[in-house]
Amino acid sequence: MLLRLLAGAGVRSSHMFAASFATIYLCITLWIRAKTVDQSERGNAERRALFVGLWPPMFWLIGETLRYGERSRAGRLRR
User: Does residue 79 register a pLDDT over 70?
Assistant: First the structure.
């Protein structure tokens, strides 16, 4: 259901792969930034970086599923 909505909205697998790499970059940036804040705020900043670090696999798997759908649609069009 969600994948049909994403495909209908024009989201392609390459978009999701790019989002996966962008969230890796964001996670590293937040983690480095967490090392520069006060000790009292550091725990919260590190938790935020870890939370964002959970996103890349989700975006990658959604991209893989969209790619599978793109390939199956392309195969049906060729026949």
Answer: no
Residue 37 DSSP symbol: S
C-alpha distances (whole Å) from 74 to each of 13, 29, 66, 77, 78 are: 14, 38, 12, 5, 6
Rounded to two decimals, the pTM is 0.82
Pure H helices in 1-79: 2-8, 13-34, 39-53, 55-78
- Write the pLDDT tens digit of every residue in 48-61: 999 999 999 999 99
- What is the DSSP-derived secondary structure letter of residue 79? -
CA 41 to chain centre: 26
Alpha-carbon gap, residue 20 to 58, rounded angstroms:
8
CA distances 13 to 18, 39, 52, 65, 66, Å, are 9, 40, 20, 8, 5
Please report where in the chains the tokens 């049909």 appear, as a residue.
4
